[in-house]
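User: Let's play a game. I give you a shape written as tokens, and you guess the letters that built it. Ready? Here's round one.
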């Protein structure tokens, strides 16, 4: 478990660096009359509303863009863009986060119900899975969004061999697979990343998980919580509770006062600290609703009213 005192000290150092080196964040703090030198506690740090990534190049320090991640979106909706000055930081963050929860990626076969990297190389989720696939030592690891019949056959092969497998995908594609090819999975972890957006009738996360559990004979379904604007992820292994990677911390803000954070057990807006996001902004005010647990884990309860639906509509 991360030492909270050490993490908070690192977060304050990151805040002062980005308050000076990130022009967008610096101007935002100025408009709030925030004096960075006077901020001495993490819960007093102003978090940058995530909407700024739709209208500004949010970067800290000079440098050329190595990668530009872009959120999915429907026609007419402005998308977020995350400008990375160093893609190795993201690669190191996703590898260390995966190892923290699941072990060595080389031990897994990764089956991605997502567009291929060539189709959506600007998606951070596809980038993540492409890299995990590259770390896998299994020849069947790959993208299968447009070939579910082959995916079903490979799942059966992997199950017979006892291979540790992770099947990760957008919700509507996992539902299609569950309807077309239900089968018992004993060595496979199924992880959904959200994403209906008009492809199917919207379901609650619990309804979705119940369908997948019945179709695949599983005890639980995993989930991944990540965003275009972040470089770290949180993972749930099936109880609806997300655990953050070591570089990530979640706070819950008062829905009526965005500069006030709530105690454990109370519901409000999710604010995320991501120390891996050094050359962007590490303090993101999301439009997600959540609730914090005493151990730092959290639940995701939904979205603020009138906010755009977030999901992985990767086919648009």
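Assistant: Ready! My guess for every position:
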């Amino acid at each position: 478990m991360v030492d909270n005192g050490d993490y908070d000290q690192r977060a304050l150092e990151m805040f002062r660096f980005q308050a000076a080196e990130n022009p967008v964040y610096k101007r935002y703090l100025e408009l709030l009359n925030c004096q960075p030198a006077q901020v001495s506690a993490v819960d007093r740090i102003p978090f940058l509303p995530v909407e700024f990534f739709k209208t500004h190049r949010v970067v800290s320090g000079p440098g050329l863009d190595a990668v530009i991640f872009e959120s999915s979106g429907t026609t007419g909706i402005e998308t977020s863009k995350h400008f990375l000055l160093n893609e190795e930081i993201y690669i190191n963050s996703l590898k260390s986060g995966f190892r923290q929860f699941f072990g060595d990626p080389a031990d897994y076969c990764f089956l991605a119900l997502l567009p291929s990297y060539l189709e959506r190389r600007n998606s951070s989720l596809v980038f993540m899975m492409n890299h995990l696939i590259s770390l896998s030592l299994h020849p069947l690891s790959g993208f299968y969004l447009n070939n579910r019949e082959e995916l079903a056959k490979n799942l059966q092969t992997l199950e017979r061999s006892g291979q540790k497998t992770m099947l990760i995908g957008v919700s509507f594609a996992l539902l299609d697979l569950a309807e077309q090819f239900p089968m018992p999975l004993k060595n496979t972890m199924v992880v959904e990343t959200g994403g209906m957006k008009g492809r199917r009738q919207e379901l609650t996360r619990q309804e979705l998980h119940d369908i997948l559990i019945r179709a695949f004979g599983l005890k639980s379904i995993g989930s991944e919580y990540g965003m275009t604007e972040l470089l770290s992820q949180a993972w749930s292994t099936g109880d609806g509770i997300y655990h953050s990677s070591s570089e990530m911390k979640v706070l819950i803000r008062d829905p009526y006062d965005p500069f006030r954070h709530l105690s454990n057990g109370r519901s409000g807006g999710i604010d995320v600290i991501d120390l891996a996001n050094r050359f962007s902004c590490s303090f993101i005010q999301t439009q997600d609703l959540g609730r914090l647990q005493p151990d730092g884990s959290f639940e995701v309860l939904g979205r603020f009213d009138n906010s755009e639906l977030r999901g992985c509509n990767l086919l648009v």
